[in-house]
Amino acid sequence: MSASRFRRAAALAVTGALAVAAFAGLGPVPSTASSHREAPLTSADPAIDATDLYAFVPEGAPNKVALVGSWIPFEEPAGGPNFYLWAEKTAYDINIDNDGDARADVVYRWRFRTHRRNPDSFILNDGQVTSLDDENLLVSQTYDLTRIRNGRTTLLLNDAPVVPSNVGAASMPTYDADLFDAGVQTFGRTSSWVGQSDDPFFLDLRVFDLLYGGDFSESGDDTLDGFNVNTMVLQVPKDQLRGPDDGVIGVWTTASRRSIRIQDSDGPLTWKGPLVQVSRLGMPLVNEVVVPIGLKDFFNGSNPRGDAAYLPKVHDPELPHLISAVYGSVFPEVPDSNPGKAGIQRSDLVQVFLTGLPGLNRPTTVRRAEMLRLNMDIDPCATDCSTLGAIDGDVAGFPNGRRLSDDIIDVALRVVMGVLLPGHDPDADGLADGVGENDAVFQGTFPYVAYPHAGSDGDPH
Amino acid sequence: MRVRVTSIAIVAALAATTFLLGALRPGSAVDRRLEDRPPAVSDVGSGFAPAPSVGSLDATIASLEERLDRVPGDWRAAAALGIAHVQRARITSDPYAYPAAEASLVRSLDLRPEGNVEALVGLGTLAAARHDFAAALSWGRRAVRTAPFDADAYGMLGDAQLELGRYAAAFRSFQRMVDTRPDLASYARVSYAMELQGRTDAAIEAMRAAHDVAAGPADAAWAAAHVGKLHFERGRLRESAVWFRRARAADPGSIDAEAGLALVAWATGDLGKAIAGYERVVTRVPSPEHVGVLGDLYAAAGDRGAAAECYALVRAEARLFRANGVDVDLELALFEADHPAGGSARAALRAARAEWHRRTSVHVADAYAWALYANGRYRAAAEIAARALRLGTRNAAFLFHAGMIELRLGHEPAARGLLRDAFDTNPFFSVRWSPMLRSTLASLGSP
Question: A120, A162, A456, B385: which could form a disulfide with B369 (CB 3.0–4.6 Å)?
Answer without folding.
Answer: B385
